[in-house]
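Students often ask what a holo structure prediction actually looks like on paper. The answer is less mysterious than it sounds. You provide the chain, you provide the ligand, and the output is a string of discrete structure tokens encoding the 3D arrangement of the protein together with flavin-adenine dinucleotide.
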Amino acid sequence: MRVTIVGGGILGTAHALEAVARGHEVVQLEREPEARGATVRNFGLVWVSGRARGELAAALRSRELWEKLGAEIPGIGFRPAGSITLLRTPGEVAVAEEVVARADAQCRGFTLLDPADVRARNPALRGRYLAGLHCANDAAVESRQALPAMRERMTASGRYKFVTRTEARSVTGTAVVDDHGGTHDGDLVVVCAGAAHGGLVRELAGELPLRRVRLQMMQTDPLDEPLTTAIADGDSLRYYPGFAGATLNSLTHNESQNAVADEHRMQLLCVQRLHGGLTIGDTHAYDEPFDFDVTEAPYAYLVDVVEELLGRALPPVRNRWAGVYSQCVDPDQLVCRTSPDDGVWVVTGPGGRGMTLGPAIAEQTADLIGL
Ligand SMILES: Cc1cc2nc3c(=O)[nH]c(=O)nc-3n(C[C@H](O)[C@H](O)[C@H](O)COP(=O)(O)OP(=O)(O)OC[C@H]3O[C@@H](n4cnc5c(N)ncnc54)[C@H](O)[C@@H]3O)c2cc1C
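The corresponding structure tokens follow.
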């Protein structure tokens, strides 16, 4: 088959890879000179730990697919580094104790560590915390390198073409018309336009159960030592659905969040890039119109938290940015996947887990279509 993919982010690229791997020909259209959306702005965390029960199998499958892709395409920068969620209050430790006692703890790769064990696993963590929830299954990839590396692999197949500066404007049958007046004929169209919910997506699929979420992020200069695992703080327990339960309810009832963290719906996630710098975030804003400027208070708060956990000063912050992802608001769906016409699919809305789930979502789409 000839498959036309719209969108150059992880969903479009994972669908392209899946189609090429299954023997098809792929043309992938990206409206910008290079992918510019959520994928290249994210942490690159393949995050299994706090997934809801209903999404755990897909997250584990995707982790497996990422590991396989990472071995085949070293430019993805896959590393099975795991994560440690650092717990700083008795209430947070109680939530971790509850989740490690659950039946699915082993499958999530959870172990509760005391401070000495935390330091043994990640010697850079010389700061203040009471315990650490280790997740052996969490992993990381290099988001800004992964897409070009994956495309290079597909190009080598001779059955793949990446067309940039080309916006898909309409679809007639299974032919995509772009903003240069060109037509891309094929047998199948998969639209993965990220947070672009208007334009082509609205024309094809109408109003989908989606919302957009804006996050603030930063990147430091290289740290002069390895951070051997990704790290998170206890606020992430409030954010990820896998930690829900009576103990979390009592935490949220009895322990208030820092005022800045509460106002900006924050959690700390931090991962070391291959160049040594730390990618640190994040905030969550749900009400549009989103600010177009980044706000300083959350950055100052995140620096304080990381410095407390590392027990040392951070290298200077080199970059700050914001990103927007598309999130399906139906909690039972991993993504909004709909086929408005024969041979035309719209796939978007993986939320804050699109990098984690991209390969599994693409595999599911390909199986569903019978690619
Ligand atoms: C700051 C931030 C941090 C995150 N961290 C993580 C993380 O660590 N782990 C995780 O699992 N998830 C994370 N996420 C979520 C994840 O990044 C997203 O779910 C995922 O990248 C979405 O991929 P996508 O391909 O759907 O969209 P995008 O990456 O936004 O790509 C869509 C692309 O489509 C193009 N496009 C749109 N319309 C058209 C058109 N008509 N024609 C041609 N091209 C078009 C756009 O230019 C864009 O390049 C994070 C998100 C953000 C914003």
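The chain has a mean pLDDT of 97.
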